[in-house]
């Protein structure tokens, strides 16, 4: 049990020397109280040395971790006979003195920030505390959380660890910060809020105990008073005839650990340099001779307080040590796991570096392939990634874009009429021109090229994203290696992009190179004619019904049932041959002109043809309402001389003829030819689009995706596995290196602390 407090002291030294903070939440006694409540005097009485700074305002501005270590007789003698060369050399500056010139009963002090320097003059200990406080906290009376660690070795102290905190003040004085109260309160709460701390609340007896700032703060974190012990100071300054027995008995403010009364030196005693030895004797006399306290004299005074605190701390350490050991085990496990994430960096020889490099390349390649195949261990749940995005590009983006293209996009009726006329040459044709179909369908097939190119680019960009996200956390240890891996795979993707792009272009060019009108899925002229006639019959039937509803007076001499007449006309091979502007007025008349199926294809002598494109430039002798039979084999009724004289059109004016075509009325044959061409173009475009939707993803997968997957491993090895590149590629990132070394230090500290506890526990 005697080893428990030294064990905690060793652990404190270990963690503060290596880490700088008490991460283990080691058991300790925290001294709190208001300013000028007597905290410093209590500590000096326990130590038996006058070593703490004194003055007005806040004097303690940094936490002071005070470790009291009891020296046994043999340890004192060994210290007396020991000479340290460093101590002899330090005597030149007057800050330390050799133990040979001091009595072993005087003891000595050591600061953690001044290793191997012993202070036997406790006046210089006070000066060092002031200087260290000024160095860190500054001269503006502000406070700082960085603690000062002080060890005091003496035969007259018990093993004990105390933490002295700044006294709580209400009003800033002088150049103190305006928020000095909140700063101090925050610092105190940080220490007493730890469950492993014992709170030593110091309160002056000559003030109302219910107004004690130390007890108020203690109650905030320890409302039941289980780990709070009270100390009453200045009992000799209480009013005559009063005492603190009600407080000491727990009737006023109950605490499980109770209250202990002390009497310290007054300000006049300090000024007159009254020794602590005399002060302790005066304290004993006070309690022994006081009528109220002499019955409990064995539970009063500094010696009883020190003994109680030592026993209390030992018991507290014993109770909390299993939890500390369990916490250490958890920290060791967490730190080892963190180090495994950073990896074990051993590059003692070239072979070891080669193994590290090969493993990194293998993990990178496997991660790249697994992301495409959907076998990655880190599958995101918020968005599509890897191979799923490639599937979405092919089946959603690409196919939707192609299906949204209008087969007749940018192709007007004027364009079709012009192409038909140009393909016939100088004479009229009997059959629909196949040359016009070829000329018109190829530009429409070219509309499929841009979406195909965009699909290739989207897949390439997605593969580049997969490349940048490939690898694991260990890869980030070597940023140059990671960059080299990404650049190598990026070069491979760029190499495969060019042939993929060319092949997709060739695929569209192949479709445009040969228009296969014998394809089984192609509609053909007969199928197109059937569709066109079906639409015409349906349109004609609709018009007749509309006309019958608008004109109820109908000649029923031909047929009693108008609907049956409409049905017969719609189902027959003949179709009414009237111009679009005259169909409605000629509907139902006896002079309705009828034509055969062949008349739509080959034309008829009695059909009314449109005026030629240059008809608007004819002479006034030619009536605009008189039809001109350009395609008729009959002799033109208009005199040749008049026609020839009325045609002064220049070649430069032909462009305006094309523009006027859209405004002119088409003949039935021209309407039929235009609709047939549109039907054939639509059929062939849809046929080709199906082929492209199927072939382009296959080309991309074969030439870009699968080719990259198959070659990535070999490309990485052939490009990067070179002995001259080992040193440059395996340079560890500075931040990761720092974190890894930090975790290695932490693990070493944890292991040492665990070993210390295991030796005792």
From TrEMBL:
Q: Where is the composition biased (Basic and acidic residues)?
A: 76-85
Q: Where is this region: Disordered?
A: 76-100, 540-573
Biased-composition ranges, Low complexity, are 563-573
An example Gene Ontology CC term for this record: peroxisome
Q: Which one Pfam family would you cite for this protein?
A: Dynamin_M
Q: Which UniProt keywords apply?
A: GTP-binding, Nucleotide-binding
**UniProt GO BP:** endocytosis; intracellular distribution of mitochondria; mitochondrial fission; peroxisome fission
Q: Does the keyword Nucleotide-binding apply?
A: yes
Gene Ontology molecular function terms on file: GTP binding; GTPase activity; microtubule binding
Limits of the GED domain: 674-761
Please name the InterPro entries in this protein's record: Dynamin, Dynamin_GTPase, Dynamin_GTPase_CS, Dynamin_N, Dynamin_stalk, G_DYNAMIN_dom, GED, GED_dom
Q: List each copy of the Dynamin-type G domain by range.
A: 23-322
Q: Where is the composition biased (Polar residues)?
A: 87-100, 547-556
| Family as reported in the entry's similarity comment | Belongs to the TRAFAC class dynamin-like GTPase superfamily. Dynamin/Fzo/YdjA family.
Q: What is the protein's given name?
A: Mitochondrial dynamin family scission GTPase Dnm1
Q: What is the phylogenetic placement of the source species in the record?
A: Eukaryota, Fungi, Dikarya, Ascomycota, Taphrinomycotina
